[in-house]
Amino acid sequence: MKALVKAKAEPGLWLTDVPEPALGPDEVLIKVLRTGICGTDLHIRAYDGWAQQAVRTPLVLGHEFVGEVVDVAPGVTGIAPGDQVSGEGHLVCGTCRNCLAGRRHLCRSTVGLGIGRDGAFAEYVTLPAANVWVHRVPVDPDVAAIFDPFGNAVHTALSFPLVGEDVLITGAGPIGIMAAAVARHAGARNVMITDVSPYRLELAERVGVSLALDVRTSTIEDGQRSLGLREGFDVGLEMSGRPEALREMVANMTHGGKIALLGLPTEEFAVDFARIVTSMITLKGIYGREMYETWYAMSVLLEGGLDLSPVITGRYSYRDFDEAFDEAAGGRCGKVILDWTA
């Protein structure tokens, strides 16, 4: 079968023939239909410092996907050939304290699909049945392909109650924009998002934010005044990993404000902990999705009319992967999709 492979320990990716994966115990064989390009995939293509430590070649990339079930191992129930499915890309041990307590997203031995084992940038992929999410209600394949990052957005946005709250989102990448759409849909009063990219701020406006603020020319405090806020934001969603973004967020939260952090910094940095303490601000780190409460919430949000179509801005055949990756790396885009049927 065709697969997109990190074949060598150097920058680049290679479209090549690899053996079709064998169906193991308790696994599901899936014909891949669409995949989404993630920032992680860009790091692996560039073979930066993180990728050099995290991956071993050869490796089939990809963890954002939708496909059709082809076969299931004996004993697998609830999943059948023909089902449209997405996959939870965090494979957990099942035996640690958190896994046994049902907190699988907190497993210390998590293996990443397309990072620690061959992934979904291929014509076929296998996954443990426990990692397969069946779409019981029809979902557009492009949207189903990005359930993984959509789940990051939902997990972050729904970490704290949002009804009637004023929400600040720093970072208008695709996940930040999806989080803004979720916050709006979930009943937030105001949703302000910040970035330095006019293109992405315009995308955010298309999902209905109250204010898309270019922090090159305006401050978050300016945004507060524009929205008529006197006491600061109630909920913060930090999506950028930028030191200045978190520092400004902390400075503009109301007393008792709550911040969920998904953006991953590249290095340590200082924050005003005295302000965090005296303002009684809650900080919560987010990684991945809650299995499977977040997945349930995603499906229900889409059933309830949440529209993610503005976030998807590029569609390519898998054969044109270099062009697709170049667009994704360029920053003037939302989510970029590879079609494995074209």
Automatic annotation (TrEMBL):
Chief place where the protein resides: cytoplasm
Annotated NAD(+) binding sites: 175, 195, 200, 262-264, 286-287
Site (Important for catalytic activity for the proton relay mechanism but does not participate directly in the coordination of zinc atom): 148
Any one GO MF annotation of this record: L-threonine 3-dehydrogenase activity
Keywords tagged on the record: Cytoplasm, Metal-binding, NAD, Oxidoreductase, Zinc
Pfam family, one: ADH_N
One GO-annotated biological process of the protein: L-threonine catabolic process to glycine
List of residues binding Zn(2+) 2: 93, 96, 99, 107
Family: Belongs to the zinc-containing alcohol dehydrogenase family. DOIA dehydrogenase subfamily.
Protein name listed in UniProt: L-threonine 3-dehydrogenase
Organism from which the protein derives: Actinacidiphila yanglinensis
